Amino acid sequence: MKILILSCGTGEGHNSAARAVEENLLKRNIFCEVKDVVSFRSEKAQKKVSATYSAVITKAPALFGTAYVLGGLYDRLKLPSPIYCANAKCAEKLYRYIASNGFNCVICTHLFAMEAMTAVRKGFDCGVLVYGILTDYTAIPFYKDCVLDGWFVPNAEAQSQLEKRGISKRIIHRTGIPVSEKFRTEITKSAAREALNLPQDKKIITVAAGSAGCGKIIKLCKRFDKELDAGYKVLVFPAKNRKLKERLVKSFGANPKFITVDFTPDIHLYFKAADAVLTKAGGLSSTEAAVVNVPVIHIKSLYGCETANVKYFLKNGLSVSAKTAKKAVKAVKQLLADSNCTRNMLDLQRIFINCYAADSITEKITEEAENGSVAVDGLYFGRFSCGRDNVLQVCPEADNG
User: Fold this and answer.
1) Total Cβ atoms within 10 A of residue 123
2) What is the pTM assigned to this prediction?
């Protein structure tokens, strides 16, 4: 079995999901390869799409919300998608790559990839299985254009939204969002701090803003500096946003209360070392924090997917939300002062979030490829998540696979 995983450089979450699935397939000795779908248009297009996305969410995040609203309008009016037309342009080149390399399955972690593969199936005798993975706790506009063999979704609401778009319940599998195995590594907070050379005697707050910086990180850090005493240490991750990093270093580089951390593959250890994680509401970053099992505070979100993610987490007690710097500081103090509240949030994360989602996805794909089996009522039962003290938690509303 040879599997091509198609992602896109519009946000690191889609790439993280692709790498999580790749990691799981390789562990099973299944050949796979990850490619950016836009690269099949051209290398120039790949760089341009990534740069445009970064510019929009950094400098004009309102445009992202506008695009989301317009996408919903296309869905409701059943108009042809301009995004589909753009991605269909690479269909021939993508088809030839699949055929020449002998791939018999394609997994898509981004809408662009799903639409490109739909164009491949419509225009060529492709003969490969095609699956889509949702990386947010909602179904975004334009999914109705996509013709796939299976959909992997994180929750019942996303499943219902796909069904309303005309996608058969039979091919929708509720597995959760795939994250790398390292996020469920059994390591204590103390051991994680020792590995990272972080103090054992301080309250550590991790701020994972993403490359967008959410436009409010400097203001947030100033508030932390003003209201948190020397017993706290704030770790700030500007990701790949060089401008944000420069501002952080200039403003807080000499302040012993703060550490600016470069883009790192060890983010799971920083999450594990933390007493609380403040993160933007990306589907992947939120899920990664919940899999690590650390108190989560969602800071200001982009309209659309991220607001839906916050809604899902708040509804199920998996996080708290703080839209302003003042409220974020207040949330940190309240969470760390209330052990019962923190304990309850961690229990609910274990119940609602399937830390084995990547396993569930690859098991389902290999099962269908080898045996031609189908889902039962669209719900794939893989591993269960366990609650405190390894007591199996059963919750009818839980979407943990």
Assistant:
1) 12
2) 0.85
